[in-house]
Amino acid sequence: MYSFQYRKAKTLQEAADWLAKDEDAKPLSGGMTLLPTLKARLAQPSQLIDIAGLAELAGIENKNGVLTIGAATKYYQIATSPVVREVLPALAALISTVADPQVRNRGTIGGSVANNDPAADSPAAVLALNATVITNKREIAADDFFQGMFTTALEPGELVVKIAFPLPKAAAYAKFPHPASGYAMAGVFIAQTVSGVRVAVTGAGASGVFRWTEAEAALAKNLTAAALEKLAVSADDLNEDIHGSREYRAQLVKVMAGRAAAAISGKK
Ligand SMILES: Cc1cc2nc3c(=O)[nH]c(=O)nc-3n(C[C@H](O)[C@H](O)[C@H](O)COP(=O)(O)OP(=O)(O)OC[C@H]3O[C@@H](n4cnc5c(N)ncnc54)[C@H](O)[C@@H]3O)c2cc1C
Q1: How far is the centre of ligand 1, averaged over its atoms, from the C-alpha of 257 (Å)?
Q2: 29 CB less than 6 Å from ligand 1?
Q3: Does domain 170-265 have CATH number 3.30.390.50?
Q4: pLDDT digits (tens), the chain, 268 positions
Q5: Which single residue of 23, 123, 191, 230 has CA 20 to 30 Å from 159?
Q6: Contact assessment for residue 112 and residue 105, using Cβ atoms and an 8 Å cutoff
Q7: At 4, which helix (H) or strand (E)?
Q8: Looking at the domain covering 5-166, what would its CATH class be?
């Protein structure tokens, strides 16, 4: 680990000011991705600005058909929240599949969304549910937010403050986890929203989370696993590594999509 200065911000404005004054400073939330990166000397920030305790980034609120979750809300708080379990159980279920209890007790939804790991779970929910990422500067639609592997629409120093999820009519997530880390080899989140069915795939795409539009069209007509039987995911843009080939991941996506659709319809 290279040396750095640690500073704990007392307000969102203070954190934003410190980040604006130093382009090599980085926000620190749960540290579950950032600290291993520093330990491996893959990053050399001048300062870590601790935003984990900021009141502006905390809280879970269900109002007017929108569930809003503060960026620094820890995974375990979301997975165990009676509000999330009641109004958006698919999100609580997704979050409970992230990693292990140790990571869920420190990791945050805002850190995950800002990091945009191609195998992370939360981006699939954000994209499928057509959520809005609210930063300290603007509101960004999910379709515009995720821009490729570890790349988002966030500008340097811009902070995710909260994420607003419009409540769907129905939703489900199915994931084939990597057996060691829990990250998604393939994860599919299906949401029946007011503007139609949206299908987001994580873990499989070489460029990160993406929408499977052919499945969306098929499920809009018939929201059951049977609607996916004749579809195939192209392996061309999928990820290939020691854990699985592109073709294997393409098959996993189809199987996970079928499971998520069956969870919604109650039919295999
Ligand atoms: C062993 C292990 C297993 C894991 N398994 C899974 C898994 O199964 N599924 C999964 O989805 N994830 C998994 N993760 C990753 C985990 O979810 C991380 O917690 C998450 O990716 C980052 O959240 P964090 O709060 O720890 O962010 P940090 O590590 O603090 O930050 C991550 C990055 O985001 C930036 N950042 C943080 N918060 C903000 C903000 N509010 N605004 C702007 N930028 C910000 C930081 O500067 C940094 O660049 C795993 C991690 C570990 C260590």
Answers
A1: 25
A2: yes
A3: yes
A4: 899 999 999 999 999 999 999 999 999 999 999 999 999 999 999 999 999 999 999 999 999 999 999 999 999 999 999 999 999 999 999 999 999 999 999 999 999 999 999 999 999 999 999 999 999 999 999 999 999 999 999 999 999 999 999 999 999 999 999 988 899 999 999 999 999 999 999 999 999 999 999 999 999 999 999 999 999 999 999 999 999 999 999 999 999 999 999 999 986 5
A5: 191
A6: no
A7: none
A8: alpha beta
Residue nearest ligand 1's atom 53 by CA: 32
Where along the chain do its domains lie?
5-166, 170-265
- Cα–ligand 1 centroid distance for 192 (angstroms): 27
Q: Does any ligand 1 atom lie closer than 6 A to the CB of residue 115? A: yes
Q: Give the contacts of 30 (CB within 8 A, at least 6 positions apart).
A: 52, 74, 103, 106, 107, 108, 111
Q: Cα(33) to centroid of ligand 1, in Å?
A: 4
Residue 75 main-chain phi, psi, to 5 deg: -55, -45
| Residue 114 beta carbon below 6 angstroms from any ligand 1 atom | yes
